[in-house]
């Protein structure tokens, strides 16, 4: 009898140890929020400020003209594909669609366009990122294209086209870890080029890290260095769209195409840390009934200003394709006891069930 008790005790202890080791293994090798969906933060929002989101081609400097460039007349609600702050008051935005894609610098408070570049009709602009050319420390804007297998590189100061890379993927979202407020001198002193990183999405379930060549004009094709699968609550997530790097947490905020959802992603593991539900935000736009007539009028565009980029839970500036407004929002932890899979229901109704 005593031997039986001892044997059972040993077996129980071994099972406990094995269970602990198994849990540690999964935690170390997987996104913890995917293993334990209740640990994923579920957030809603509070609108802090509302801004005009209109591009007027008659205002500001047009950088380029040409026979393949459609000249725009009248106010335009941008078809936002990329959005980022370059200082506390100014942003850069890429607007998509064939024949009418453009890149612009504009002022936040007034909405006034300072400078813009109308792309040739064969390009559909997608996500954007600030990137330093390592050899020269020239500051550039990378612009993805949708199906053209090209990465366009623009001079940050002038918005003139500097180089074009061949690129093997479709273009969706793009972001980098460059802080726009750092001067070139500060970047050089800190040897930033050694730590610079660039990420992209392409409509599939992966987050790709791209190479950053030493000299852009000497390289024909941009290579993919690595990829990580994007997951949330154990599900693969496709069609991750506009991206925004968060300096403080070293994570990425990302729109999911055709939904009102933003995910915060662990860059290393690809797992979801937060789900932000922006349902109802589009209804706060001016002329929102007019905007609803277009099925393309969906949430897309995330930017974090320099002040908030150093906060653990930053305020976000968000907008959408063809939206007449941008919104500064504060993230609010949901008081409801929700699990990630239930919040992702919108994803499964739109994107997920089509895969």
UniProtKB/TrEMBL annotation:
Keyword hit for Transferase: yes
Keywords associated with the record: Membrane, Transferase, Transmembrane, Transmembrane helix
Superkingdom of the source species: Eukaryota
Ranges annotated as spanning the membrane: 5-27
Stored InterPro entries: QCT (IPR007788)
Keyword Membrane assigned: yes
One Gene Ontology molecular-function label: glutaminyl-peptide cyclotransferase activity
Protein name (database record): Glutamine cyclotransferase
Organism in which the protein naturally occurs: Plasmodium ovale curtisi
């Amino acid at each position: 009898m005593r031997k039986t008790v001892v044997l059972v005790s040993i077996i129980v202890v071994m099972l406990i140890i094995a269970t602990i080791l198994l849990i540690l293994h999964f935690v170390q090798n997987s996104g913890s929020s995917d293993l334990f969906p209740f640990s994923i933060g579920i957030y809603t929002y509070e609108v802090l400020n509302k801004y005009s989101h209109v591009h007027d081609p008659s205002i500001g400097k047009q950088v380029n003209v040409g026979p393949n460039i459609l000249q725009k007349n009248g106010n335009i609600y941008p078809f936002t594909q990329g959005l980022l702050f370059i200082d506390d008051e100014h942003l850069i935005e890429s607007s998509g669609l064939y024949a009418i894609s453009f890149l612009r610098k504009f002022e936040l408070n007034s909405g006034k366009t300072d400078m813009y570049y109308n792309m040739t009709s064969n390009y559909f602009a997608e996500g954007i990122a600030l990137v330093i050319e390592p050899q020269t420390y020239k500051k550039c804007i990378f612009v993805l294209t949708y199906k053209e297998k090209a990465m366009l590189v623009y001079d940050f100061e002038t918005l003139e086209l500097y180089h074009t890379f061949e690129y093997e993927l479709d273009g969706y979202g793009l972001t980098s870890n460059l802080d726009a407020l750092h001067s070139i001198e500060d970047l050089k002193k800190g040897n930033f080029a050694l730590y610079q990183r660039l990420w992209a999405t392409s409509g599939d379930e992966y987050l790709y890290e791209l190479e950053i060549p030493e000299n852009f004009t000497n390289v024909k094709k941009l290579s993919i260095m690595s990829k990580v699968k994007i997951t949330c609550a154990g599900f693969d997530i496709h069609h991750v769209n506009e991206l925004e790097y968060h300096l403080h947490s070293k994570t990425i905020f990302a729109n999911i195409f055709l939904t009102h959802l933003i995910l915060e992603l662990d860059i290393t593991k690809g797992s979801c840390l937060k789900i932000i539900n922006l349902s109802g935000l589009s209804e706060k736009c001016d002329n929102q009934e007019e905007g609803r007539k277009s099925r393309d009028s969906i949430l897309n565009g995330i930017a974090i200003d320099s002040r908030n980029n150093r906060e653990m839970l930053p305020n976000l500036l968000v907008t959408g394709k063809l939206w007449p407004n941008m919104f500064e929002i504060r993230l609010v932890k949901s008081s409801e006891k929700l699990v990630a899979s239930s919040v992702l229901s919108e994803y499964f109704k739109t994107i997920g069930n089509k895969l």
